[in-house]
C-alpha cells in the first residue's frame, strides 16, 4: 500500500507568500557559501542537502490523501481517497495527465466529515465533469449528499451538482462495521469533533493505514483513549490531527475539536503503531514552525520510548509518499 498526501493543511488552504519564498532563497544562498553550480541539476542536488524548511515546503492544500493498492494502468482504474479538500484538484489533474480525459475510472472517496475544508476541492475535481467516470462517496453522516449539493448550489458555484457528468453515488457506512471496497477492508470509527467526524482504518495485503483527522482526544477519558489505542493497534501508519500544541488543547483551544502531536505520539506508542504522520497543520504555522513541531515530536518520542517500540514520526507534506 502506498499512501500519497495531496493536501495536509487544516481548516483553510494557504499559499507561500513572496516574503517567505525570499527568505528561503536568501537562506539557501547563505548556505551555499559561494559555491558554483554548472547547471540546475547540480544546484538541485545541493538544495536537497538543505533542511526541508529551507529548500522545500510542507504545502498548503487542505485534507486529501490517496491510498494506492494497485498501480494504475490503462483505463478503468479504481482509486481510493480520503477527503476532498483542495488537494483533490492536483490529484484530479494528475489522473487526467495519466489516463487522458477519455478513461472511465472509479473513485472511492471516504469522508471524515463535511466541514468546508474537507469538501471544498470537489467542485474543481476535473474527473467529476467527465462522463464515464464513477465517483462513490462513503461516509457515516446522513447529510453527506445534502452537503455536497449545497456546495454546488447558486449563488456559491456556477455549476449545479446535477450538471456533473460523472456517475456519482453516496454510500452510508456504519461505524465499527468493516466493509470491503476495491479489495481493501475499511472500518470507520466515530471521533470527537463538532458534528462528529469519522476515522478510517484500512487493511490490505497485511498492511494497515489509519486516517484519523479532525479528532479531539481527552486523555482523562480512559475509555476514549483505550478505544483509539485499539483503533490504531499495530498500524503501519497513522495519519493524525496534530493541529494544535498540547498546551493549546488543554487551555484556550479545548473543545475546538482538534488534537496535538504529543497526544498522537502517546496513542501511537500505546498502540505499537510503526509510523505517525502529523496532519491537518494549523494555517498560521509556517515551514519553520512545522519543522520545529516535527523535531519536538521526535524528541518527545525518544525520551518517552521506554518499553514501547520505536515510532517513526513525519510531518506530512503535500506530495509526500509513504510505502507501507
Ligand atoms: Zn478540518
Ligand atoms: Zn472539521
Q: If you had to describe this structure to a student in words, what would you say it looks like?
A:
The protein has 324 residues and is of the alpha/beta class. The chain folds into 2 domains: 2-16 and 57-323, Metallo-beta-lactamase, Chain A, CATH 3.60.15.10; 19-53, no CATH class. It has helices at residues 18-32, 40-47, 52-55, 88-99, 116-119, 144-152, 222-232, 246-249, 261-271, 287-303, and strands spanning 2-7, 64-68, 78-82, 106-110, 134-139, 167-172, 179-181, 184-191, 197-204, 207-212, 237-241, 275-279, 312-315, 321-323. A 7-stranded mixed beta sheet has the order 6-5-4-3-2-1-14. Strands 7-8-9-10-11-12-13 form a 7-stranded mixed beta sheet, covered by helices on one side. α10 (287-303) links the parallel β12 and β13. The longest helix is centred in the C-terminal third of the chain and has 17 residues, at 287-303. The chain is globular. The mean pLDDT is 95.
